[in-house]
Amino acid sequence: MVVKPTKAQKKIAYDAKLCQLLEDYTQILIVAADNVGSNQLQSIRKGLRGDSIVLMGKNTMMKRTVRMHSEKTGNQTFLSLIPLLVGNVGLIFTKGDLKEVSEEVAKYKVGAPARVGLVAPIDVVVPPGNTGLDPSQTSFFQVLNIPTKINKGTVEIITPVELIKKGDKVGSSEAALLSKLGIRPFSYGLVVLSVYDNGSVFSPEVLDLTEDDLVEKFAAGVSTLTSFALSISYPALSATPHMFVNAYKNVLSAEKTKEYLKDPSKFAVAAVAAPAGSGAAAVAAPAKEEEKKEEPAEESDDDMGFSLFD
């Protein structure tokens, strides 16, 4: 006769197993296991077999083991796991690619009926069409204000109806109607909540980032850093080339100013060479007008009664 282990023995074995996994693996997926059955969990374990191990357990036990193992080994990075152990969660220890393991976990979803009192994870819409129900079942549709008609001795839904909204609890009438229609609106499986990688914890959305996304984000960060460094005149590496160019422009501007101060005649030359409509052209214009005004004065000398033949 096989003797079943006691609760104390089970706790000791669980602690030893979790501690060994923490030693052997540096990558952990923290997953939500709401509404996941034992058969479904067994299928997930088989699908991940090879480089990943799924471990479920009570949060209090997992937190206690993680804390004690951290104190024993002096590795404080394990403590970042404790705030993540909230709700019905489990741990997937893996040595494989995190993105591939996450995608593999997402494959094992099973359809589930809408049970009374369950919080809907998605909107539930009943499509139009023939339900196959006899006219005596119209009371269900009337209670839920679903427009119907009798077609060839069966109830037919006229328009699509949003029966349950995401976040609402499933009522008895909604559950009964969906059951009669054979609709299993929900699907459940392990959902990755957080990722632990060598002491770092991040959101699973990070796993979906591509190289192009990373390059784009890096370029945007460098641009922001450069603009900020230029605004406060801080010699950051990305801002240094711009600072050199701006400084060189300032030097050139100062040299031209010195030349003009040494030789003011260059102002006049610059004014004549300036294009029409500019400020320099406006300065040169009065000089030309003065020259034109002097010409009539020379002509008046010839008109004072003298002639070349006198």
From TrEMBL:
UniProt region (Disordered), positions on chain: 281-310
GO cellular component: cytosolic large ribosomal subunit
Any one GO BP annotation for this protein: cytoplasmic translation
Keyword Ribosomal protein set for record: yes
CDD domains per the UniProt record, alphabetical: Ribosomal_P0_L10e
Keyword Ribosomal protein appears in the UniProt entry: yes
Pfam families on file: Ribosomal_60s, Ribosomal_L10, RL10P_insert
Keyword vocabulary terms for this entry: Ribonucleoprotein, Ribosomal protein
Large ribosomal subunit protein uL10-like insertion domain boundaries: 114-183
GO MF entry, a single one: structural constituent of ribosome
Quaternary structure note: P0 forms a pentameric complex by interaction with dimers of P1 and P2.
Cited function: Ribosomal protein P0 is the functional equivalent of E.coli protein L10.
Family of this protein: Belongs to the universal ribosomal protein uL10 family.
Name of the protein in question: 60S acidic ribosomal protein P0
Species this chain originates from: Senna tora
Lineage, opening ranks: Eukaryota, Viridiplantae, Streptophyta, Embryophyta, Tracheophyta
